[in-house]
Amino acid sequence: MTTDLNMVIANLIDDLAEIQESKQSRMGYRRAAHAVLLLAQPVTALIQPGEDHPTIPNVGPKSLRVVREVLETGASPTVEAAVIASGKVAAIELRRARRGNFLSRAKVIEALGDDRLTGPTLADYRGDLQMHSDWSDGRLTVAAMAQACLARGYRYAAMTDHAHGLPSAHGLSVADLARQREAIDQVNRDLGDRFCLLAGVEANIGLDGSLDLTPAELRAVDLVVAAAHAGLRLPDDQTARMVAAVRTPGVHILGHPRGRQRGVRAGIMADWDRVFAAAADSRVAIEIDGDPHRQDLDFELAGRAAEAGCVFALDSDAHSASELGFVDIALAHARLAGVPAERVINCWPLGRLLEWLGDGRPRL
Length: 364
Known about the structure:
Elements lengths: L4 H14 L4 H15 L23 H13 L3 H10 L2 H9 L7 H9 L13 E2 L13 H10 L4 E4 L14 H18 L4 E10 L9 H5 L3 E6 L10 H8 L6 E2 L17 H11 L2 E5 L9 H9 L4 E4 L11 H11 L12 H8 L7
Parallel strand pairs: 1-2, 2-3, 3-4, 4-5, 5-6, 6-7
C-alpha cells in the first residue's frame, strides 16, 4: 500500500496538539488533524506547487506548515523540534506506536475505488451485523436504525446492544433483551419482506474468556458478537482468553478483536495466529470494525486471519444512522487485506446467513 500522506500529516498535527499547554491551542490542532483525516482527496491534490496561501477548511497557517514540510521532505522538522522542546518525547513515541495501520478517509475512498484490489465492494454488502440503539448506548430507536439500514439498500441487519456485563454502556439485562426482542419483532412485521432485523447482542468477554451471558441466554438471540471491553491495556499475553471466547458455543462473531483505539491504546496482546486458527476451526467470524477510532482488525492482521481460513464480519459499530457509513472503512481494510467477498458473512444472501447462524455451523 502506498503511503497514506493524509494520515501521516494528521498524526504529526496530533503530536502538536498533545504537547500544547493551552487548551485553545490543543483544540485548534486537534480540529486541524481531524479535518485532514476527513479530506476526500489526498492533500497533494489540494495544494499546488508554488501556491502561497492554500486553503484547507479548519487547517490554520501553523498546521499548513506541517503539511508543506511533509509534502517536501516526508517529515516535519517543526513537529520534531517542538516535541523535543516539550520534554514529552516518550509520551509522543508511545502514542505513535498506537497509530499503526489506520486509514484516512482519502485512503478509504482510494481502496474502495481501486480496481486492482480484490475483495468485497459496496455493491456486495447486504447488511450490518453490529450496531446499537437507545436500548444501550446508541442514540436512535430500533425502528429508526432499521429504517436507516433499509434506506442504505440493506437486506438485513442485526441489533447488537450491549449485554449487562458492561454497565458503562447501559448494558441490557436478560429481561431487557426479551423486551427488545418484542420491538424487533414489530419492526419485522412492519417491514415485511423488504428487510429482516435480527435480534443480536454484544456479549462482554471477561478476563478469563467467559461471557456475561449463560448458554441459555446466548441461545435466546439470533446473533452473538463477543467482544472484550476490559484488560485492553494489560502487557500480559491474553491468547488463552481470546481462544476461550471464540471456542464458546453460541458465539458467532469476535468483535473488534484487539480493542485498540487510535493513539490511545494498542489493545490486547495475543498470539493472533492461534486465535485465528481457533476461530476458523469454530467457524466464528472475525470482525473488521469500521469505527474510525478502532479500525480493528486492520488490513495487516486481517490478511493473516484470511490465510488462517477465517470468515469475516464487516461492521460499522454504528451508534447512530450517520455512523452506518463507517462500514466503508471496514470494506477498505478487507480489500487491502485481499479478503474474498465470499468469506464475508455480510455479503451472503439472508438464507445462507440464517443457515450459518443456526444449523450450518457448530452450535450448542
